[in-house]
C-alpha cells in the first residue's frame, strides 16, 4: 500500500503519507540520523516507480476509509528514500490535487540541480528542503551523499528552486551532537538558509532510532544558540524537538496500517498501542508481526520504537 496514516505532523497538522518509493530504501543520501536506516541503493537518477494512476487510486481508496474527522490537512510525499527520484512525481502531484487537499513534499534537496525534478516539485503546495550544513565537509559528513552529486550541484539546485517556487517553502536543519553543532558550523548553515529565504526555518534533533547508533541530539545550550542565531538573521524559526502525539488515522486493517506507517515513520510504543486500540486489535497482532520479522523493535533515548524490517 502506498499511503499511510494520517499521522500527526509537527509541521503539517494531520498528514496522510504517500510513499512513492516502497521498495528497499533508494536515496541520494545516507544520512547518519535517518529514521529509515542506511541506504542500500544509492541513486542520483530519477526513475519510474508507480504510475500516477496507481498513486491516485491508492490514496483515493485510503481517503474513503477515513472518517470526516480524520480528513488530512495535507497529502505528503515522504518516501522510503528520496521522493524526487520518482520521475513521474509531478504527474502524481497533479492527480492528487483532484482531492482538493494541499500536497506537500519533504525532500533532501539533493536532486534540485535536475531541471525536470524542479519542474515536478514546483507543482506542490508546500515543500520542505533539507539544509544540515553550509559547507561541503560537514554536508558529506552528516548527509553522506551519492558520489554522483557534488556540493556545488546541491547548492545551485537549492538556490534555483527557491527563487522559482511560488508555494510555501520551508527548510529543516537537523542538529547532531559533535557533527554539525559547532558555532562555526551553525554560522555557515544559517548563511545558506538565509539565501533560500524560507517562510519557516525549522531546527530539529533526532527523536527516533537513527541509521548510525552513535548519533545523539545536540545539547540544549546549542539548540538555544542555534535558535537565537537564526532569529537574529531575521528568519522565522521554529524548533521541532518533541513527540508528535499518538493521534494516528486507521483503515480497519491493523497489520497493513502498522507495516505501511513504520516503513517510513518509526512508531513509538504509545502510538502503537493507540493504533491497535483504534483498529480493534491487540498485542497478539503486534507479537505476530515481530515473530514473522515483518517489523523490528528498537530502543532509542529510553523509548521503544517499531520499524519495518526490509531485510526479511
What report would you give on this structure?
The protein has 312 residues and is of the alpha/beta class. It folds into two domains: 3-240, Aldolase class I (TIM Barrel); 254-308, Arc Repressor Mutant, subunit A, CATH 1.10.10. It is 34% helix and 20% strand. It has ten helices and 13 strands. The protein has helices at residues 52-65, 89-96, 115-121, 136-143, 151-164, 183-196, 220-232, 254-261, 269-278, 283-291, and strands at 3-9, 13-18, 26-27, 41-42, 74-77, 103-107, 126-130, 168-174, 200-204, 237-240, 267-268, 295-300, 303-308. Strands 1-2-5-6-7-8-9-10 form an eight-stranded mixed beta sheet. Strands 11-13-12 form a three-stranded antiparallel beta sheet. Strands 3-4 form a two-stranded parallel sheet. The longest helix has 14 residues, at 52-65. The radius of gyration is 19 Å and the shape is globular. The model has no long low-confidence stretch (mean pLDDT 88).
Supply database-style keywords.
about 35% helix; Arc Repressor Mutant, subunit A; about 300 residues; alpha/beta; eight-stranded mixed sheet
SSE arrangement:
Layout: E1 3-9, E2 13-18, E3 26-27, E4 41-42, H1 52-65, E5 74-77, H2 89-96, E6 103-107, H3 115-121, E7 126-130, H4 136-143, H5 151-164, E8 168-174, H6 183-196, E9 200-204, H7 220-232, E10 237-240, H8 254-261, E11 267-268, H9 269-278, H10 283-291, E12 295-300, E13 303-308
Parallel strand pairs: 2-5, 3-4, 5-6, 6-7, 7-8, 8-9, 9-10
Antiparallel strand pairs: 1-2, 11-13, 12-13
Helix pairs in contact: 1-2, 2-3, 6-7
